[in-house]
Records
---
Amino acid sequence: MKKRNYLLGIEMWVVGVSATNAIVFFATGSAISWNIAHFFDEFSRGFGMPIIAVAGLMAITHDYRPSVRMDVLLFAVASVITLAFVTTDFFDDFLPYYNLVMWTLFSVYLAYFIKRLLNVGAGFQAIVLLLGLVTSQAIACVYDFYKIPGDETNIVFNFYTLALCSWAYFMPAVYYAYCALERSCNQGLAVSRPVPFRN
């Protein structure tokens, strides 16, 4: 089954690159890995998931198919704004609230997506995605506003471990939820098509 959903696919790669570089940084202390992880993390929290991934998911919920030019434009604009966010101090006070609002709006859309899954009988995928919604929203709420006691000294059980585990669960949950809803839509189309007459 060819998805050809570049918005959703590339954003999932972005999250993977961010998480991989975060792990490399924690293991080696590499400043380059930290800068890459930080940029892509901010990209995904502020634009990648709340805007780009939602546009990708809307291919199945609203039959929204943007042109390649629009795909490129979305990533380009998001990249430029993210670069401004991470390289200047001007947005420091505003950014935590912006990220939280954007992720909360993303969670609202995911709640709608879960409802669509329930409507087509994909209860298991709905529950799996609901768990991803709850854990990722909890991470978004804690991220810039609450520091776990002992976070700086605890290497194994700290905030970033929880965040990475949450996102590692969240990405396949979104993917399989998308596949389940896509299968249901495709089956609906197949049923609605007239059967050709044969002698």
Note: Residues 189-199 have pLDDT under 50 and may be disordered.
---
Amino acid sequence: MTPGARVQAAIDLLDSIVAAARDSGAAADTLIARYFAERRYAGSKDRRAVRELVYAAIRRLGERPESGRAAMLALAATDPELAALFDGVGHGPAAIGANEKAATPGTAPEWILAKLRESGLDGEELPALIDRAPLDVRLNWLRDAPDPIEGAEPIPGLPDALRLPSGTNIETLQAYQDGAIEVQDAGSQIVTLAAKAIPGMRVVDLCAGAGGKTLALAALMGNEGALLATDTDRARLSRLAPRAVRAGATIVETRLLNPGHETEILSDWSESADCVLIDAPCSGTGTWRRNPEARWRLTPDRIERLTRTQRHVLEIGAALVKPGGALVYIVCSLLDEEGAGQVSAFLADHAGWTADSLALPAGRAHGAGIRLTPAHDATDGFFVARLQRAC
């Protein structure tokens, strides 16, 4: 592909991504993979260059643009070499019109920025939300220790974590194939520690998804005890079983939940769990570094639906905790209405529950829990609280 053709390919992809964000379609990574699966002629350098253009344009724009071309013009406005490729030659994009408008740069839609500021974030915290994320892995001690990984660096405060060079093809590493490492952001590893999981415990990962935190819990428990991973999403939960086999996590039981019938399906765990971990569905405002187009998908109605779901799963989880046990509530959101506000409301409505103190390797006290942010902690953004049930 010529440089101009790469730019046009990025524009075409951005058109698809903008439409998908508007209509709740596929994620950007999925659309990019589909695009190149249909264009086998594009080499690895072409794919990498187009992908970098696409994500650079997405990160530059807070508001969802009108079109992929408007998005790329915003990027070209500060890059003369890129602007010069708008020449209409061959498969390249048409020349820039005299009155053609580029999309407006920004960090996020203004209504979301207002919510983030109300939640105590401002200054350097906001632009850091859309920086590129590093590649972190967790060492899995259920397997033998891996050989040294070239370029890997330790993460302060996390002896079981490494940060790998950007662009590392993780699936080609022998350590990954052997199950000795798992891809998991340092922030995700840190908030999982709030469960204080030890061997012999009975633990529920209520919103397990594909099981990143489940596998971390199994390692903390040394494969001793009972670990139940549940979710309402069959496709996501189905990915956990093969991951558990690769990781050597033998105590994991998976259970698909039917929305509205969760209590019935979990009746055998009623008031018997030492700890219930809830990685609740949320807006994902703390993960924009990895999914920057997610800023374009959010609406006030969606956040309201998510907060209702969060209240629902808190009630389900609380009913599984034994007297003296704990409920760990996690969201990868930095909005107080999904984090500190949810915990405050739960404590106000549930006598006999208190917020337990947490000593984690990173983060700052926020409400009844701890908050991690990209700017302060070099992790994804999280809120976590540990709630203790009275004996």
Note: Residues 45 and 69 are 22 Å apart (CA to CA).
---
Amino acid sequence: MTETAGTVARYTTIAGQYRHELEIRRSRFITVLQRVENEADVVDLMNGLRREFSDARHHCSAFILGPGRDLQRSNDDGEPSGTAGQPMLEALNRRVTPYGLTDLSDIAAVVVRYFGGVLLGAGGLVRAYSESVSRALDTARLVHRERRRLFVIPAPPATAGRLENELRGAGMNIAAVEYKGMSTRLTVAVQDEDAALDAFHGHLAGISAGELTAIPAGQEWVDRA
């Protein structure tokens, strides 16, 4: 995983909500995966599913939040301890993404279980909840998120157009162009990796003969399909 100054610069999440149903020995396991930004989103998802499946016996959950995947929680919701929420969380954690990493985050999984009358035992429950989440993940479209560093370049209006064209031609992402009196401000979003940052500063110096300065202006996260 790419890191800059000790912080994660890239991770993977999912696009929207996905559902998958699995039947095991007459018990129905309905898995709902959803992209979430914070714990409030998880609570809203849980509340909505409890209303939608109000007659189900269990609504077990697991979620991972943050670029560094620092916040992880699970809940068995009445199933024997360690047989539902934790296996679900482990299924999220071990999913290998197209980058070849286990970096899935900003995702919540809820498995709604309708008991079918046949006891599965602890081992059976662990396998059922783990498989339910894994099967649901197979149906989800993954989205790569990258952190980009923002830079503002003040430039004279007479040269701003050429500067913008030069930067775009070099593959730079122009996030905004703002005209203020006798000055134009171009905001450029650069992938937060050393090679990309060096290329940006080097290209700017080259096309402006060292006369223009890129002023740091924070960062943003963007989705890349």
Note: The first helix runs from residue 39 to 52.
